Amino acid sequence: MIKIEHLSKKFGDLEVLKDVTVEIKTGEVISIIGPSGTGKSTFLRCINLLDRPSGGSIRIDGVDILDPKSDVPKVRQKMNMVFQSFNLFFHLSVMDNLTIGPIKLLGMSKVDADRKAMDLLKLVGLAEKAESYPDELSGGQKQRVAIARCMAMDPKIILFDEPTSALDPTMVSEVLSVIRRLAKAGMTMAIVTHEMDFARDVSNRVLYMDDGVIYEVGTPEQIFDNPQKEKTRTFINRIRSFSYHIASPDYDLYAMNAEIETFCDKQILPVKTRQNLLLLVEEMLQIYNPLLSTVLLDINLAYSEKKESLEVVFESTGEAINMLDKSLLPDELGLTLIQSVTESIDYQRVNNKNRVTLILKKK
Amino acid sequence: MKYRLIFIVAVCLLCSGFVSKPLTSLDDLRDKRIGVLLGSVHDRYASSTYPHASILQYKSPSDLVLGVKSGKVDAAIYSYDELMELLRLHDDLAIIGDALFSTPIGMGFHRDNNELRHEFNSFLKQLRSNGQYDSMIRYWMTGHAVKMPKLQQSADGKSLVVGIVSDNGLPFNVVIDNRMVGFNIELLERFALYSGRKIIYRDLEFSNQIAALQSKKIDMCAAVMSITEERKKKIAFSDPYYEQAANMFALKKNIAVSNVVSKTRQKGKSVSFFESVANSFQSNIVQENRYLLILEGFKTTVVISVLSTLFGTFLGAIVCFMRMSSNAILRMLAQTYISILRGTPVLVFLMLIFYVVFASVNIDPVFVSVIAFGMNFAAYVSEIFRSGIESIDKGQTEAGIAMGFTKVNTFLFIVLPQTVQRILPVYKGEFISLVKMTSIVGYIAVQDLTKASDIIRSRTFDAFFPLIMVAVLYFLISWFLMLGMEYAERLANPKLKRKKIINA
User: Fold this and answer.
1) Between the CA of residue A205 and those of A20, A179, A226, A319, B392, what are the distances in Å?
2) Cβ-based contacts under 8 A for chains A and B
3) CA A121 to CA A128: how far, in whole Å?
4) Whose CA, among A25, A126, A245, A265, lies 20 to 30 Å from A285?
5) End-to-end CA distance of chain A
6) Which chain B residues touch A143 with a CB distance below 8 Å?
7) What per-residue confidence (pLDDT) applies to B262?
8) Class of domain B104-243
9) b or e along B324-361 (b: 16 or more beta carbons within 10 Å of the residue's beta carbon)?
10) pLDDT class for B266, splitting at 50, 70, 90?
11) What are the chain B neighbours of A42 within 8 Å (beta carbons)?
12) Cα gap B347→B441, rounded to integer Å
């Protein structure tokens, strides 16, 4: 149905999309995953022409919509979009949010539009909120209204741009179940998401995007269980990682600890592991402290769900030096503590940087 | 009224501190406060003769008289004939000493307009030769007339715009029964008959007359103006039609030679509060059908306010779109417009538009006011519009466009309704302040509510009642307009509308 060939997009000198070619068939659900800032959202916005592509072609049922003669607003009616920030019309009630498009754009009568809107609200479970206003709804409810608003236009495809990223964790599932329901009903959809479990069970195909290209395409099983290419593998293994950059001895210790705890929360790490991790980072920073005024230090945490291992990497600039060398330490107390919580410690000189890799003990 | 008396007494007491010695001669005024009419020959005379006195320049003759009566100045200079008429009405005033000087009076013309000037001069010659002039002098100067003699209606010929000072005072020019009356007016109307012209009066401040003549806002100036060498450099004068002396006058009780002070004061005290309000009402509203003046002024104020708001809103919308345009030149133009209009006092801007921009164009001053206030209003509301539009998050626009609306329709259906809802409270305030701002249109000869009260004040010399009345009227206008706006605000807010439905 939609055939995209050699699509590219530049913002000034920045090339966000390089050469994207993909076909979306009717009834297909496609998830687009990948690291942040690799052009996933831009890709969706280019399909909808919210951002005008710099090159390539987009054909819908054989018609090139990038043709200057094409009626862009008309084309957009056929492929509506759900945004991360809901973007409901604040001056209109839920009902009017759903009917404004059909009445003004499709020429539907008010009675018909109202009836259809009511059916859609029942579908997303919000019939009783028909007369409410957007600011009286929770985030999850707003996003469900936004989805119903899309459906009201009878689109051929719905584009979801990170539909759950702005939601409270408790509200994610209500939105996802609505999308699942649409998928079952045979709606064609393209979804940019960070919810890996969801992407895995809702989609027919998964596109892994990295650095402005579609790096790997496959069924959910292929991409999540058996990725073929290196970057995909890294991403799947390190879906969740954390990094912190320290540029001076006056870094914000409390903010950093809070972020590490948030990271642990997300990974649902056991309390013991969390304590050990914090202890490890604290002792390491003690040891690095004399260097902090002259070098830049990066701390990277990576948790691999499959291996159930937590890797901590300290990378510092400056001349080659292994800070954990016993001969350089004033006493061995810190090192002993570190060794007691780690499985392995490894020092390497990589790219003119000192890299210390520590694997945390399991339990 | 009681408070007013207390206030006056307090002012008098304060003044008596300054006027320690009663005035005996003109020399006593050396270090006193002297009132003069701004731009008049008296103004020049006072500053050169009394270098140590503080000279207070008043904008209109009625303010000058009020200044003396309320003790704001110790004495003031004004023309002899007008003073004689004043003294007949106000026995608490008196003349000090002899005439200071006397000057010939003439009509003023633009220096290029010799044709009209010659025409007037030959008219004057005819008037003097057939004895009409002498009978006019008898009628107005010595007969103390207050009514215009019956004249033929002037023909509907070419219009002749004449600048006058409507509160100059009898015998020359004053407003009675809502029409111009006086020697000058009879002279003008006879001239109109003679030359087959139709007169349009422009009521301007004395100090603005010459500028108005130079910028051809008026064809002729009949402001009882003395002919001086200095003025001749700027405008041309007709042959003199009268010779007028100037005199110093003050409150009788401050002048040593006279002892008759208490008469009127006692009369004032014996009047009860309600009686005095009734008297004020009678003299300020009922007498000479003065309510018609107020009514006319009221209409003018409302018309100017409403039209400038409409024009200003329209222009403001255009400026706002220029300001938000992606075109750098349009943006800069809009920004310059906004800075200039907001950085200029609206009065100065109004005069600029009237005397400079529309110089040499005969244009209705009401129209000029609407343009000036509209342009000023536009500068303020365009920024209100902009902040309103920018406060609507871009996401909604995107959602509208993604849905298939064109950019224009997204703005109309999504952004505009929310903008209106948000800016109305601020817009309302701006609108009310515009209504009040229009009170300065008197400067360009528009007879609005404020000017109407000035004219009444110039006849009754009662500052309290006309001012309070006008204040109340402005308040009522603002209040009603505010009610209308609040209604609009409710319409624009869907939630309030819904509550109404639920309650019903």
Assistant:
1) 16, 16, 14, 47, 37
2) 67
3) 8
4) A265
5) 51
6) none
7) 39
8) alpha beta
9) eeeeeeeeeebeebbeebeeeebeebbbebbbeebeee
10) very low
11) none
12) 8
The reply to whether ipTM tops 0.95 is: no
Contact A86 B395 (CB under 8 A): yes
Chain A nearest C-alpha distance from B421 (Å): 9
Confidence of residue B313 (pLDDT cuts 50, 70, 90): very high
Secondary structure (3-state) at A316: strand
Pick B403's closest partner by Cβ from A86, A90, A153: A153
Please state the domain extents for chain B: 18-103+250-254, 104-243, 291-503
Whether A41 and A192 have beta carbons less than 8 Å apart is answered as yes
Class in CATH terms, B18-103+250-254: alpha beta
Contact A9, A42 (CB under 8 A): yes
User: pTM to 2 decimals?
Assistant: 0.70
Going through B23-69 in order, the beta strands assigned E by DSSP cover 33-37, 54-58
**And the tokens for B318?**
């255009």
CA pair distance A207, A4, nearest whole angstrom = 14
Same-fold call for B18-103+250-254 versus B291-503 = no
| A73 in B contact zone (CB under 8 Å) | yes
What is the CATH class of B291-503? mainly alpha
Do B401 and A90 make contact, defined as CB atoms within 8 angstroms? no
Rounded to an integer, what distance in angstroms lies between the CA atom of residue B136 and that of residue B133? Answer: 5
Helix (H) or strand (E) holding A321: none
* Contacts with A330 (C-beta within 8 Å, 6 or more apart), sequence order: none
Length of chain A: 363
Q: Do B401 and A87 touch (CB under 8 A)?
A: no
Exposure on the CB side of residue B18, measured as CA atoms within 13 A: 18
- How far is Cα of residue A291 from the mean position of the Cα atoms in its chain? 35
Contact residues, chain B to chain A, C-beta under 8 Å: 392-393, 395-396, 398-406, 409, 413-414, 417-418, 421, 494-495, 498
Q: What is the pLDDT along chain A (363 residues), one digit of tens a residue?
A: 889 999 999 888 888 898 899 999 999 999 999 888 888 999 999 998 888 899 889 988 888 888 888 888 888 888 899 999 999 999 999 999 999 999 999 999 999 999 999 999 999 999 999 999 999 999 999 999 999 999 999 998 999 999 988 888 788 889 999 999 999 989 999 999 988 878 888 899 999 998 888 999 999 988 888 888 888 887 886 666 778 888 888 888 898 888 888 888 777 788 888 888 999 999 888 888 888 888 888 888 887 766 778 888 898 888 888 888 888 788 888 888 888 889 888 888 888 888 898 988 876
In the numeric block, which tokens belong to residue A301? 């945490």
Whole-angstrom distance, CA of residue A311 vs CA of residue A325: 20
Min Cα separation B404/chain A (Å): 4
Search chain A and give the residue with CA nearest B405. Answer: A73
Pairing, β A205-210 against β A213-218:
antiparallel
**Does A149 touch chain B if contact means CB atoms closer than 8 Å?**
yes
- The share of chain B scoring above pLDDT 70, in percent, equals 90
Nearest-CA distance A75 → chain B (Å): 7
Q: Where are the alpha helices (DSSP H) in chain A?
A: 40-47, 72-77, 94-105, 110-123, 139-152, 169-184, 196-202, 220-225, 230-237, 253-267, 271-288, 333-341
Instruction: Please give the single-letter amino acid code of residue B279.
Output: N
Are residues A149 and B403, on separate chains, in Cβ contact within 8 Å? Answer: yes
With CA atoms as reference, the chain B residue closest to A131 would be B498
Q: A74: distance to nearest CA of chain B, Å?
A: 6
Distance, in angstroms, between A274 CA and closest chain B CA? 39
Option in B399, B409, B498 nearest A131 (CB): B498
Report chain A residues whose CB lies below 8 A from the CB of B392. Answer: 90
